[in-house]
From TrEMBL:
InterPro entries found in the cross-reference section: Homeodomain-like_sf, HTH_AraC, HTH_AraC-typ_CS, Tscrpt_reg_AraC-type_HTH
Domain HTH araC/xylS-type: 168-265
PANTHER family found in the cross-reference section: HTH-TYPE TRANSCRIPTIONAL REGULATOR GADX
Protein known as: AraC family transcriptional regulator
Keyword set includes Hydrolase: no
Highest taxon in the source lineage: Bacteria
Region Disordered: start-end pairs: 263-282
UniProt keyword list: DNA-binding, Transcription, Transcription regulation
Gene Ontology molecular function, alphabetical: DNA-binding transcription factor activity; transcription cis-regulatory region binding
The keyword Transcription regulation appears for this protein: yes
Length: 282
């Protein structure tokens, strides 16, 4: 399987996280509902009111607009791997639960060791995203909806309402094009808000605009480092840094380690077209 992030409009986004070192990522924000299934190694997630440890074959369904501290740990073979799946918002809003005992996932739901049938549904859903030329759109939608039914059978479903926090709104905007020259005036012209109101609301949420822009870019870079073979110099450009050295300094300041630490000793230099981003990988 190619080590890429695949977005299929109207269906969803899929990718595989690969790491070669034991690393901790602090304050990782989700912007869409996501399902993660661990293949090798272990994953720890911690948030106020939630924590879990996942091993091979374990799955977790995470709600949107959540913030986690995450540790990814390679297994005995020296590698951590996990696949993740994000649904197009239309599929989430259109899903109807048949489980009277199902409730909306508040933060995340630890699905633990999922049955083989669940794993198969997840695998074919990933294929549906990755193979648009071979799998018709209607079949792809059906496959991703089947995974939602599986999650619902475990007693949870994703909510439709996005956070009303200004920082969440701005985060989504920046995520749509992290390499753009984001300024306060550019942002307020899109979200119909005065610059003074924008800065005041972000301050009330404990965030400065410059910090928020940098945070989204670093989380995007983390995703690209985990889920593609793009060179670090290219990733720097894709998240708005012309200087790879300045990018590396900012990344180390944010996470506490160099960008190259995620890949360990991998030095793949394959060129790829610019990668669109949908959800910071975790």
């Amino acid at each position: 399987m190619d080590h890429v992030i695949t977005i299929r409009p109207g269906v969803g986004t899929a990718a595989r996280i690969v790491q070669s070192r034991h690393l901790r990522f602090s304050r990782v924000t989700t912007t869409s509902p996501v399902l993660i299934v661990v293949k090798f190694g272990r994953k720890e997630l911690r948030a106020p009111g939630f924590q879990c440890v996942l091993g091979p074959g374990d799955a977790v369904a995470i709600s949107q607009d959540q913030v986690f501290d995450i540790v990814n740990m390679p297994g005995p073979d020296g590698q951590y791997q996990a696949d993740w799946l994000v649904w197009d918002p239309v599929l989430i809003s259109g899903f109807v639960s048949d489980n009277a005992n199902s409730t909306i996932i508040d933060i995340a739901q630890d699905l633990k060791q999922v049955p083989d049938e669940f794993s198969h549904s997840f695998a074919v859903a990933l294929d549906a995203v990755r193979q648009p030329d071979n799998i018709p759109h209607a079949i792809a939608v059906h496959r991703l909806n089947e995974v939602l039914v599986w999650i619902d059978s475990f007693g949870g479903r994703f909510g439709q309402r996005q956070s009303s926090r200004t920082s969440a709104l701005v985060r989504r905007l920046i995520l749509s094009s992290p390499d753009a020259n984001w300024t306060a005036s550019a942002i307020v012209s899109t979200i119909a808000m005065s610059e003074a109101t924008l800065r005041r609301r972000l301050a009330e949420e404990g965030m400065a605009l410059s910090e928020l822009i940098a945070d989204v870019r670093m989380l995007c870079a983390m995703q690209l480092l985990q889920s593609t073979h793009l060179p670090i110099s290219r990733i720097a450009l894709d998240v708005g840094y012309e200087s790879a050295s300045r990018f590396a300094i900012r990344f180390r300041r944010r996470f506490g380690f160099a960008p190259s630490a995620i890949r360990g000793h991998q030095r793949r230099g394959n060129e790829h077209p610019k990668t669109a981003l949908s959800e910071p990988g975790i």
